């Protein structure tokens, strides 16, 4: 059983960058800032490529919804082993307002078009921390979902997925086709080697717009304010537990 | 106002000429399209150039024949300034540019995430897994052509990647020893059979390479090596005997480029010893390595002795021609040097950021360190020097990539000298900014400083390279100026010439040379003052070259005259640096790069100070060895050497009570 796997990759601000709030307080500064692939999406791509190496998958398609530069992200995915890419071009000004629901609708449409058997997404993007796209995509397709995957095994027409949940580890079985979201400990992504980057140049990236897929990307909500988290204040030492409890009560914490 | 900028052509300069249907002698350069149309063929300041012919206007840039130009610095010794150099090269097309940009990302990540610099330094070893990762990344075959499994990168891309590999000195040297010198001979002058046999496994790192030239009694004097190769009676095998010292990667390299003396019997029956280069596999037998040397810096790089005991080498493994080994060695070394500019700049940029981070957070006397002028001066000067280093490195890389069969030996040597000394000095200054913390092993500065020290020594000591720069230029000049110099040295026999040259020399002696090169016309007008300075320096340099030749004649290469040669070399270094920074800043401004105004500042201040240095050196040449103190220092040195130590009596010595 050879699966066609669609993997979503998002271009986000690099995790090491010091984020600064924009002067208009409606977003963060992105101009001239280093961007890279969402770390969870790297894990997703890595898992899909490993499935291909194990001959469980026959094709890995990397998809990104974003501005022109999202092509760089797709190229990284191709260099890691994806076979081809799809770039759903979102105009630069609208990128910020793109919501998980929009992406989920786009993914669902592409799944239909590409006749995919498995969708692997990162569990959340490190810029908006929504943790919603995988779940919404599964719902739109009426497919089973296995989120926060830390291990994926294939068993006859089904996937056995170990999920990292608050209480510990949960192992579930989902029938294919399914949507999986990758968590941190699923795998350690490979480095895109220079020879592979060169080879990736020859791989195709199809370009399209959200409208071509019949998806309306008008926003459903409006950002009112973006602010820095409050500056961390100094702590105080107390003599004993009773004083601690009193202080906490006074501060309204308990 | 005419802006001599590249806005006109984002395509290869040659295309502009095709439409005009005209051909102009002089530099093929869209920058000069406004002015050069009227350039008279007698423009003696630009060397004659062979044109790149374009078959048809729609030909891809790749199919364009590259222009062939005369070597820039060597011609500078004759006062010939090739203005095409003022157009900062742009050799990568969009695809290559994007590819390079993509490649830089994983390499940087790998170094930041997987390379433990302090541990490599402490253990004096690069872990096997780290090396394996570097091989898988493809870093062992950067310049090997793709058909042999390498990346097929040019000089420019190699230089860019060197900026990142400099994150760890031991790794940088291991990689360079392997590909910049170890296997480079095969790339430059290997036969197809040799390339097919060895390059594929070298490209993926299955085999590593080393460059075996230096011997205990032959360091700078490479031609005096004593390792010997004797040919068997049937002419099929060479036996190599000898020992090499300080060979990077010598402890594990599978393939070595070994230089040995071979005897040539001349038609006259006379026997002559000449150097021959050989490709030697460790598996040939008789090859052994000594223990790794315990070094001040680049401690993770393997350096050791390599011994050859009757090592049999098949005749087809001769690299280049029998007896042509010295040239092979020089070509190999020349081709790798320029990347020291970009690796030095890459390292310094990082150290600068870290020092600034400290300076804006640390307060003393109520002010942040970054508010004190003495600290600011360090940051300012360092920035200008990094700018010069980068500009020269990429200018040289651009010439290597963009010209047909270029001779960049002197330029590459200049980049090496400037960058190695800059890296050492500015690393030290960054450490200074951090004070005591900079001295501690818990901070990376001391490691980078120790790693940087070798740069002034290997790949040709800076002393040797200064002589190389000076003497190569003097040789070029001397050849052409022989008659001129002869007449200068025999003024009474050549009155007509002397009078004719008299006006020019009179002006030079008054430190007021005629500025007729129109360098300013090839740069953005904002840089006009610096352009004038550059032109002045070029003229003064030409004058000082003639002075040195006239003064010493053939004896210019004698040991006692090295200081004058070194002065010329230092002038050449500053001239190349000035040219590079002005060319780059002009381009930045013309194409509207971010912070271009800042670049103009860097270029201007660097040029101003370089000009002052050149002025001083020319003056020192003019006033001669007595007044410039060369003589006195020489006599002091003689006394100290004879005494086998310091001569002056101790300050507490008394002769009376």
TrEMBL record, chain B:
- PROSITE patterns recorded: ACYL_COA_DH_1
Read off the InterPro entries from this record: ACAD9/ACADV-like_C, Acyl-CoA_DH_CS, Acyl-CoA_Oxase/DH_mid-dom, Acyl-CoA_Oxase/DH_mid-dom_sf, AcylCo_DH-like_C, AcylCo_DH/oxidase_C, AcylCoA_DH/ox_N, AcylCoA_DH/ox_N_sf
Sorted keywords for this record are: Acetylation, FAD, Flavoprotein, Membrane, Mitochondrion, Mitochondrion inner membrane, Oxidoreductase, Phosphoprotein, Transit peptide
GO CC entries = mitochondrial inner membrane
Membrane-topology descriptor: Peripheral membrane protein
Cofactor(s) demanded:
FAD
Residues annotated as domain Acyl-CoA dehydrogenase/oxidase C-terminal? 323-470
Q: Where is this region: Disordered?
A: 39-62
- GO molecular function terms noted in the UniProt entry: acyl-CoA dehydrogenase activity; flavin adenine dinucleotide binding
Q: Pfam families under this entry? A: ACAD9-ACADV_C, Acyl-CoA_dh_1, Acyl-CoA_dh_M, Acyl-CoA_dh_N
Q: Transmembrane residues, as ranges?
A: none
Residues in domain Acyl-CoA oxidase/dehydrogenase middle? 210-310
Q: Which residues form the Acyl-CoA dehydrogenase/oxidase N-terminal domain?
A: 118-205
Please state where this protein is localized: Mitochondrion inner membrane
Instruction: Describe the reaction catalysed, as an equation.
Output: octadecanoyl-CoA + oxidized [electron-transfer flavoprotein] + H(+) = (2E)-octadecenoyl-CoA + reduced [electron-transfer flavoprotein]; oxidized [electron-transfer flavoprotein] + hexadecanoyl-CoA + H(+) = (2E)-hexadecenoyl-CoA + reduced [electron-transfer flavoprotein]; tetradecanoyl-CoA + oxidized [electron-transfer flavoprotein] + H(+) = (2E)-tetradecenoyl-CoA + reduced [electron-transfer flavoprotein]; eicosanoyl-CoA + oxidized [electron-transfer flavoprotein] + H(+) = (2E)-eicosenoyl-CoA + reduced [electron-transfer flavoprotein]
Biological processes, Gene Ontology terms: fatty acid metabolic process
Principal place of residence: mitochondrion
Q: Residues in domain ACAD9/ACADV-like C-terminal?
A: 525-646
Give the family this protein belongs to, as stated in its UniProt record: Belongs to the acyl-CoA dehydrogenase family.
Q: What is this protein called?
A: Acyl-CoA dehydrogenase family member 9, mitochondrial
Organism encoding this protein = Portunus trituberculatus
């Amino acid at each position: 059983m050879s699966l066609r796997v669609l993997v979503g990759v998002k271009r986000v601000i690099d995790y090491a960058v010091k984020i600064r709030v924009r002067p208009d307080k409606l977003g963060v500064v992105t101009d001239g800032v280093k961007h890279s692939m969402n770390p969870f999406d790297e894990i997703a791509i890595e898992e899909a490529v490993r499935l291909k190496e194990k001959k469980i998958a026959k094709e890995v398609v990397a998809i990104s919804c974003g501005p022109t530069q999202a092509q760089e992200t797709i190229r990284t995915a191709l260099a890691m082993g994806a076979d081809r890419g799809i770039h759903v071009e979102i105009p630069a000004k609208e990128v910020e307002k793109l919501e998980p629901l929009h992406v989920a609708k786009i993914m669902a449409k592409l799944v239909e078009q590409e006749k995919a058997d498995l969708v692997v997404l990162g569990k959340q993007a490190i810029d908006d921390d929504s943790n919603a796209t995988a779940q919404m995509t599964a719902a739109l397709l009426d497919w089973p979902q296995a989120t926060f995957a830390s291990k994926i095994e294939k068993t006859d027409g089904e996937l056995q997925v170990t999920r990292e949940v608050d209480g510990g580890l949960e192992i579930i079985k989902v029938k294919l086709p399914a949507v999986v979201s990758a968590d941190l400990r699923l795998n350690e992504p490979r480095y895109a080697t220079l020879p592979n980057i060169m080879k990736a140049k020859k791989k195709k990236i199809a370009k399209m717009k959200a409208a071509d897929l019949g998806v309306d990307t008008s926003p459903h909500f409006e950002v009112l304010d973006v602010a820095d988290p409050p500056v961390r204040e100094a702590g105080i030492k107390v003599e004993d537990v009773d004083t601690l409890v009193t202080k906490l009560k006074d501060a309204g914490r308990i | 106002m005419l802006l001599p900028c590249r806005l006109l052509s984002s395509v290869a300069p040659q295309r502009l000429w095709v439409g005009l249907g005209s051909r102009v002698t002089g530099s093929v350069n869209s920058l000069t399209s406004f002015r050069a149309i009227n350039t008279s063929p007698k423009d003696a300041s630009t060397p004659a150039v062979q044109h790149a012919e374009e078959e048809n206007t729609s030909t891809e840039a790749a199919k364009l024949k590259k222009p062939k130009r005369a070597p820039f610095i060597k011609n500078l010794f004759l006062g010939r300034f090739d203005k095409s150099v003022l157009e900062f090269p742009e050799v990568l097309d969009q695809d290559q540019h994007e590819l390079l940009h993509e490649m830089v990302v994983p390499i940087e990540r790998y170094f930041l995430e997987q390379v433990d610099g302090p541990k490599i330094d402490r253990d004096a070893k690069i872990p096997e897994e780290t090396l394996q990762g570097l091989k898988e990344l493809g870093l062992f075959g950067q310049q090997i052509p793709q058909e042999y499994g390498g990346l097929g990168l040019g000089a420019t891309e190699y230089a860019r990647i060197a900026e990142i590999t400099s994150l760890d000195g031991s790794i940088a040297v291991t990689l360079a020893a392997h590909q910049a010198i170890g296997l480079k001979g095969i790339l430059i002058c290997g036969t197809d059979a040799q390339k097919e046999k060895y390059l594929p496994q070298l490209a993926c790192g299955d085999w590593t390479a080393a460059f075996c030239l230096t011997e205990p009694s032959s360091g700078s004097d490479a031609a005096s090596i004593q390792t010997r190769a004797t040919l068997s009676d049937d002419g099929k095998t060479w036996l190599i005997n000898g020992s090499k010292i300080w060979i990077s990667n010598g402890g594990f390299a599978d393939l070595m480029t070994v230089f040995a003396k071979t005897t040539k019997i001349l038609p006259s029956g006379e026997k002559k010893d000449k150097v021959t280069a050989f490709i030697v596999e460790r598996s040939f037998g008789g090859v052994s390595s000594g223990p790794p040397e315990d070094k001040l810096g680049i401690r993770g790089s393997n350096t050791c002795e390599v011994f050859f005991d009757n090592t049999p080498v098949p005749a087809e493994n001769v690299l280049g021609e029998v007896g042509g080994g010295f040239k092979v060695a020089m070509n190999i070394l020349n081709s790798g040097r320029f990347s020291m500019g970009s690796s030095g700049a890459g390292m310094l940029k990082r150290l600068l950021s870290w020092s600034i981070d400290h300076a804006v957070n640390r307060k003393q006397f109520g002010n942040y360190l970054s508010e004190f002028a003495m600290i600011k001066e360090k940051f300012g000067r360092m920035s200008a020097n990094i700018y010069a280093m980068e500009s020269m490195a990429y200018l040289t890389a651009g010439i290597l990539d963009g010209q047909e069969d270029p001779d960049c030996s002197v330029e590459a040597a200049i980049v090496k000298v400037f960058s190695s000394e800059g890296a050492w000095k500015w690393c030290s200054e960054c450490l200074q900014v951090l004070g005591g913390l900079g001295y501690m092993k818990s901070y990376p500065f001391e490691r980078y400083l120790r790693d940087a020290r070798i740069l002034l020594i290997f790949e040709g000591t800076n002393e040797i390279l200064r002589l190389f720069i000076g003497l190569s230029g003097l040789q070029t000049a001397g050849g052409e100026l022989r008659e001129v110099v002869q007449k200068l040295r025999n003024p009474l026999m050549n009155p007509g010439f002397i009078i004719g040259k008299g006006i020019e020399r009179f002006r030079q002696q008054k430190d007021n040379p005629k500025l007729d090169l129109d360098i300013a016309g090839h740069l953005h007008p904002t840089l006009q003052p610096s352009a004038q300075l550059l032109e002045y320096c070029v003229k003064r340099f030409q004058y000082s070259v003639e002075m040195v030749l006239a003064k010493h004649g053939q004896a210019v290469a004698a040991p006692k005259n090295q200081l004058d040669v070194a002065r010329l070399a230092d002038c050449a270094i500053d001239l190349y640096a000035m040219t590079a920074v002005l060319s780059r800043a002009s381009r930045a401004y013309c194409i509207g790069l971010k912070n271009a105004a800042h670049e103009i500042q860097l270029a201007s201040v660097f040029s101003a100070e370089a000009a002052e240095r050149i002025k001083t050196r020319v003056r020192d040449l003019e006033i001669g060895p007595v007044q410039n103190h060369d003589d006195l220092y020489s006599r002091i040195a003689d006394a100290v050497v004879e005494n086998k130590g310091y001569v002056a009596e101790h300050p507490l010595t008394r002769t009376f009570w």
